[in-house]
Design a protein that fits this description.
Elements: E1 3-5, E2 11-13, E3 17-20, E4 24-26, E5 29-36, E6 40-45, H1 46-53, E7 56-61, E8 67-71, E9 79-83, E10 86-90, E11 95-99, E12 102-103, E13 112-114, E14 120-122, E15 126-128, H2 131-139
């Protein structure tokens, strides 16, 4: 059974969640209210809701040569990449890459994906025909530079 931890540190069974309210700030904390069957409304920290919604409901393998691309100033190439070993369908309805570091490479932000056909994509941000085109746009340089 899955549980979610409320702001008061009480654990509630996930299968008793009736609704999740909008994000609000109260007392300097980012919270959301959950309606729990048989309990009513309880306050939950926003990050706990995010973690809960990213939990996998299904997983399946990724194609070989699929990577998450991380931009960096410390590598001469301007990036490094991590192999995607699988995909996770989460409670929030989104598909997340799985690496050895976990879902979404253990990070909360949206990742850039390099697929076996050489294309790069980032959800809600765009698609690029190649890693070179993506890097040129990301660094503000001409492809030939």
């Amino acid at each position: 059974m899955n549980f979610i931890q409320a702001k008061n540190e009480h654990l509630y069974p996930a299968d008793r969640i009736l609704s999740i309210g909008p994000s609000v700030t109260r007392g300097g904390d980012w919270i959301r209210e959950l309606e729990i069957e048989g309990v009513g409304l309880v306050e939950v920290y926003g990050f706990r809701i995010e973690e809960f919604l990213r939990q996998p409901t299904q997983a399946f393998p990724a194609q070989p040569e699929t990577y998450i691309v991380h931009l960096t100033n410390t590598e001469t190439t301007g990036y490094w990449k991590t192999a995607v070993i699988g995909w996770s369908m989460a409670r929030d309805g989104c598909l997340y890459p799985i690496t050895a570091e976990g879902i979404n490479d253990g990070l909360s932000n949206v990742q850039c994906l390099l697929t076996p056909d050489g294309r790069v994509s980032r959800a809600e941000d765009g698609n690029w025909n190649s890693l070179a085109v993506f890097l040129a746009e990301a660094t503000g340089q001409d492809e030939g530079t």
